[in-house]
Design a protein that fits this description.
Blueprint (H helix, E strand, L loop, with lengths): L2 H8 L22 H11 L3 H17 L6 H26 L7 H15 L5 H27 L5 H20 L13 H4 L1 E4 L2 E4 H19 L1 H11 L1 H6 L4 H26 L11 H11 L11 H20 L4 H28 L1
Antiparallel strand pairs: 1-2
Amino acid sequence: MSDASQRVRDAPSGNNADTVGMPLPPRREGPGPVVRTIALAARNPFAGPLAALVVLILIFTLATDTFFSAQNFSVILQQSVVIGTLALGQTLIILTSGIDLANGSILVVSTLVMAQLAQGQPPGIQILILLVGFALSAALAAVAGLLISRFLLPAFIVTLGMFTMLTAGARLYSQRTLVVPEGGVLTVLGSGGYLFGVFQVTIGVFVVIASVAVLHYMLTRTAWGRHVYAVGGNPTAARRTGINVSRVLLVVYILAGLLYALAAWQAFGRSPATSANVFANANLDTISAVVIGGTSLFGGRGTVVGSYFGTLIVLVLQSGLTQMGFDALYQQVLTGALVIAAVALDQFTRKVERLG
């Protein structure tokens, strides 16, 4: 046997003879607990908002004697109806990497038109007026969708312009006066309810929960839902795979408009009178709820379930801090901090996923 053959046979198994004696490459360590937690949260997108909601409830329950009560939870649920429904429409638009600053003003226009047309009308005519309100809201949202999808105008600019025009138009239309909605069909979602002891749940609460369930199914179990995520994640790649990006965007804005009309219907029972200023600035509230609920402002990631949890988080925070005696300005400070933290977490999650 030659000397070279003897060296190869004597070398440790699995190593080349020429590398014997050389230092081994550094061993690659697995991801740390923080990265594993973030990866787990990414696979369960509404688990994080739900956990945050439970933690907030525990904190305020321990901090106050009045927070954990059936009456307080009943009030929070009823407050979540209008903003929660608006947040569902906002979620659909943000999933496509857009944003809607005009959702509150569309709601205001719908409520004013429906309330004024329904004055003195019987229930049968009120149902037709409701359909007019839904059609008007969908048409206004469709205008924004057309400008964004066909003419490729930035969603921020289009919806900001519509917010300004619709807010001013609503004030001119209402002559800056309060409009008292007619009872009956218009107020059925907010005034009707069921009592479980002192825990009252209005019909609007069931409607918003049903809306969450239907939209969650549409987004997770249908081809249309997959197209929405694809358009928001990478519109160029979505177009190359044959997805009609313009049509998806237009349908999303129209569907969001119908949800805004549903929120307008629910708003009738929440307030004894409507005006051009009620819910006009709901856009910021809905964006906060959607982002805190785990939907990415950059599109392609998020759930409607998380957005409803985000709405409840904001309301629980407001209720708890109020009962602890904090000024309303502190509520806004903490809500803003939660929004920034949610965006930072989203960016960090994307970075972790890019690194594998």
